[in-house]
Specification:
Elements: H1 2-27, E1 30-34, E2 38-41, E3 48-54, E4 62-69, E5 81-84, E6 91-96, E7 102-109, E8 119-124, E9 131-133, E10 138-143, E11 151-155, E12 165-170, E13 175-180, E14 186-189, E15 196-199, E16 206-210, H2 226-229, E17 258-259, E18 269-273, E19 282-289, E20 292-299, E21 306-311, E22 318-322, E23 326-328, E24 339-349, E25 353-364, E26 370-375, E27 406-407, E28 416-417, E29 421-426, E30 432-439, E31 451-456
Parallel strand pairs: 1-9, 2-10
Antiparallel strand pairs: 1-3, 3-7, 4-6, 4-8, 5-7, 8-10, 11-31, 12-13, 12-24, 14-15, 14-22, 15-17, 16-18, 18-19, 19-20, 20-21, 22-23, 24-25, 26-29, 27-28, 29-30, 30-31
Length: 459
């Protein structure tokens, strides 16, 4: 009896402590901060997002104000800059709704902006009765063509648990660009001497060669059994599905479609399998054309053949093509991003290699971008300096970072971050950034929204 009473008293005490802690947390003021110290806006940028984050979800509807200040820039669509929501007397008021964890305003270049030297717009959070100002209540929007971010915090956005987006991040500009995952199927290499075609590995696209060259001769009978064989994951390695996806490391000599031959008759037909609702399988044939490529394509059982010319664009790694909509914008210019986050087709050894779909996967920009993993047992994130860089092993394989920042999880085990490592990214402008992950999910626990922090490593 004594044991039971003692434990009951202990349990009651613990419950009271838990209730007290919850009440204390709920009664504590909500702190508000800018997510970053500075962001960049160049003349050719469409806009830049400014995020204001709350320390926990707000309990009631309200609004927050942001004061704007600059000694050189003038507000207005026809002047240097403007904002959404619109400012009144250089103050922007942003409404929020109960449950929100952050709000966003956008800053746009005005029609009269002419950047001859770096200019600054200072944003500050005035006192707010409902919210407590945190340590980062001021930030700067730098108007510059030569801006290099010293540090930043970014919540990657792959569209949540459905992973419907691909996120491209430029660390030096503290900028993220998001596109629909299913907005493209093929990428046509832009290098003058390269005639390579990649698949959208993030959307699990596959391509299987047929020993034919006339699309009108291909129908459903030529693809009997493909539905069960062209699958990701495909657990039977004897089927050979690994040959129908691109090499995960980005090797352009090891692609499902491969090199487009200079002799037209050598370019055969491929059956392209696409994931996504309403996205039919396609038959395609690609040949070389002036300064680029020509593609013929149709639904598998159709004799209505579409033809498109694809011109190489030197500013980009690839020209991207959707087999429903044609040429489409996907990646930023090749010098203007570093990492991509979302889903990806990897190869795993299952008694032989099979294609397997990964979520929470990060790839590198193949243009002059590299990564090195650093274990904190060797050197800490806080202590690493430029002198340590020569001791690191860098890789330019686009899947070198991949899923190596997180533990995959499994039956009964949720994915989690590794806490024993961080990474160093070398970008196309020879900037070295140390990078670590703060969380795997959004602050409310949804996948597809990890957060990372990075800092420039200066000589």
């Amino acid at each position: 009896m004594k044991y039971s009473i003692t434990n009951s008293i202990l349990l009651a005490g613990l419950l009271l402590l838990g209730i007290s802690a919850c009440e204390e947390e709920e009664s504590a003021p909500i702190r508000v901060n800018f997510a970053n110290e500075e962001v960049n806006l160049a003349e050719n940028d469409a806009s830049v997002a400014v995020e204001i984050s709350f320390s926990r979800p707000v309990a009631a509807d309200g609004s927050i104000s942001i004061d704007l200040s600059s000694t050189t820039l003038t507000y207005g669509e026809s002047a240097d800059f403007y904002t959404l929501p619109t400012a009144s007397d250089l103050t922007v008021t942003i409404p929020y709704t109960a449950g929100d964890e952050s709000v966003v305003m956008e800053v746009f270049p005005g029609a009269g902006l002419n950047i001859e030297q770096s200019e600054s717009l200072v944003l500050s959070l005035p006192a707010n009765e409902a919210l407590e100002l945190g340590s980062q209540s001021e930030m700067t929007v730098v108007f510059s063509e030569n801006f290099i971010a010293q540090s930043g915090t970014i919540e990657l956005n792959a569209g949540g648990a459905s992973f419907g987006l691909q996120a491209f991040v430029d660390l030096s500009k503290n900028k993220q660009t998001n596109v629909e995952k299913y907005s493209w199927d093929l990428g046509f290499a832009s290098e003058p001497d390269e005639f390579k075609v990649i698949l959208n590995s993030g959307a699990y696209v596959m391509a299987r060669r047929l020993d034919l060259t006339d699309l009108t001769q291909v129908n459903a009978e030529d693809t009997v059994g493909f539905g069960s064989e062209m699958a990701i994951p495909q657990y039977d390695p004897s089927i050979g599905a690994a040959d129908w996806v691109d090499a995960p490391n980005g090797d352009l000599s090891d692609l499902a479609i491969g090199t487009v031959a200079s002799t037209d008759s050598e370019n055969q037909i491929f059956i392209v399998k696409r994931d996504g609702e309403g996205r039919n399988w396609k038959k395609i044939r690609i040949i070389r054309a002036d300064n680029g490529y020509q593609i013929e394509y149709a639904d598998i059982d159709s004799d209505q053949i579409s033809i498109a010319d694809i011109t190489k664009e030197d500013a980009y790694n690839f020209t991207f093509f959707d087999l429903d909509e044609g040429i489409t914008d996907v990646q930023p210019e090749k010098e203007s991003w570093d990492i991509q986050y979302g889903t990806y087709t990897n190869l795993v050894n299952f008694g032989g290699f099979i294609p397997y779909g990964y979520s929470d996967f990060i790839t590198l920009n193949r243009y002059q971008t590299q990564v090195a993993k650093v274990l904190i047992s060797d050197i800490s994130y806080a202590d690493i300096t430029a002198e340590d860089l020569s001791n690191l092993t860098f890789s330019s394989e686009i899947n070198a970072l991949g899923s190596d920042w997180r533990i995959g999880g499994g039956p009964g085990t949720e994915p989690a971050l590794y806490d024993d490592r961080f990474f160093v990214i070398l970008d196309a402008q020879n900037n070295y950034y140390k990078l670590k992950f703060n969380r795997l999910t959004s602050s409310s626990g949804e996948r597809g929204y990890p957060e990372l922090t990075y800092e420039l490593i200066t000589p």
